[in-house]
Amino acid sequence: MAAHRAGQGRAVAAAAVLAAAALLVAGCASHPAATPAGAGGSSVTATAPPQTGAGATPLARSVPVGLTIPAIGVNAQVMSVGLNADGTVGVPPIEANAPAAWYDGSPTPGQTGPSVILGHVTVGRFGDGVFLHLDRLHPGDRIEIRRRDGSTAVFAVDRVQTVDKSAFPTQAVYGNVDRPALRLITCGGPHESGGGYPDNVIVYASLTGAGS
After folding, report:
1. Of 62, 63, 115, 120, which residue is 20 to 30 A from 6 by alpha carbon distance?
2. pTM assigned to the model
3. 47 Cβ contact list (under 8 Å, min separation 6)
4. Are 52 and 158 in contact (CB under 8 A)?
5. CA-to-CA distance for 72 and 199, rounded, in angstroms?
């Protein structure tokens, strides 16, 4: 998949839409997501969810290196992932203190469009994952993304959604939006005997400002 280009100011193009049809199952056994409309070569435009942080000025491109979510005690590193050879979205390694992972086919946090970060809910024998309590977030909760240029992109949660993986909301997550947005994704629902989870938990957030 081609990476998002700096200055595009849009969400993701066709390659990222194809990625949304792949396995968006951070930290879970494989469950195919629904095939998105428009996955044959054009980008998908989506209606943005209600936003908390209207009017925040977009930031220049800078890769995320860490994230903090005070409401659920998250303070973690962020790595970058692309697509696997089979077209699935990469996820962080299954290891102790596994980081979250920014999908490099999406805008960097603070750019216009939906920046996508995935994380494990559990990490096998190592226990809890970085996004174990993602479903406990509420509208207005603060998310801070530390960026390589030394700045911090500050977001506020708009809403939290739990969906069956077969009904993954591709357009809402990956579709073009006209403001800086953030999507955090992990697994949800009861742990299955095969080691996976039936659902995805998705947090939608909007940029409210920046710090250093």
Report:
1. 120
2. 0.79
3. 172, 175
4. yes
5. 20
Query: Could you tell me whether strands 180-188 and 152-164 are parallel, antiparallel, or unpaired per DSSP bridges?
Result: unpaired
Q: How confident is the model at residue 6, as a pLDDT?
A: 33
Contact 89, 83 (CB under 8 A): yes
Q: What is the pLDDT of residue 156?
A: 98
Among 30, 102, 25, residue whose Cα is nearest residue 62: 102
User: Which pLDDT does position 195 carry in this prediction?
Assistant: 65
pLDDT tens, residue by residue, 177-188: 999 999 999 999
Contacts of residue 85, Cβ cutoff 8 Å, sequence gap at least 6: none
What is the topology classification, in CATH, of domain 14-211? Sortase; Chain: A; (2.40.260)
What pLDDT is attached to residue 34?
A: 29
Question: At 173, phi and psi to the nearest 5?
Answer: -85, -50
Low-confidence ranges of the chain (pLDDT < 70): 1-55, 193-195
Residue 116 has a CB neighbour count (10 Å cut-off) of 29
Return the pLDDT at 55: 67
Tell how far CA 2 is from the center of its chain: 17
For the chain, the structural domain boundaries read: 14-211
